[in-house]
Sequence to fold (202 residues):
Amino acid sequence: MTENPKNPAEIGVEYEATFTGIDKDDVRGRLRTSGAELVRPEFLQKRVVFNLPKGHEIPGGWLRVRDEGDKITMSLKIVDGNKIEDQKELCLRIDDFETGRKLLATLGAEEKAYQETTRELWRLHGVEIVIDGWPFLEPLVEIEGAGEDAVQAVAKALGFSWADARFCAVGTLYAEKYNLPEDVINNQTPRIVFGMENPFLR
Fold:
């Protein structure tokens, strides 16, 4: 029987690099040229994000329930630094979006926000590449693999400079673009959805 992690350091690293401000069609062209496989055309995702229950806080940690169209996941996410190894995730599949939402709320997790994104999924050499769209942000690419070397190799194959890679949560990107404290993004913006008025223009 596998023991439960005793602290965040024991949670698996999410080896993922983000490249911001991309042109979707340009990246699609690079992916096709490199021989990448289109796994899923662009689709809509919805999610709710939560603070961890009081007394169980983890620096840089939050909870998420996400409807990915073909599956629903519940995750513990941790981003506690700006290096690739500072990103961690525990993720499991669940049967129902609203039930997952109610479960976390019942356990004392405070719901922070409802959010929508678009995602397009590709794969190259066993590495996952997604083209993501967030409301009021330029499109971005996330490259995720089994280790840093694999992520770097695919980033290079697609023409990205590793010096431009970001290792952060999307709240950091919103904060930088709109010159706002991350707390405003993460804890004072209850909806980030397509078609709404931009909540970051004040």
Residues 116 and 193 are 5 Å apart (CA to CA). DSSP finds five helices and nine strands in the chain. The radius of gyration is 17 Å. The chain has a mean pLDDT of 95.
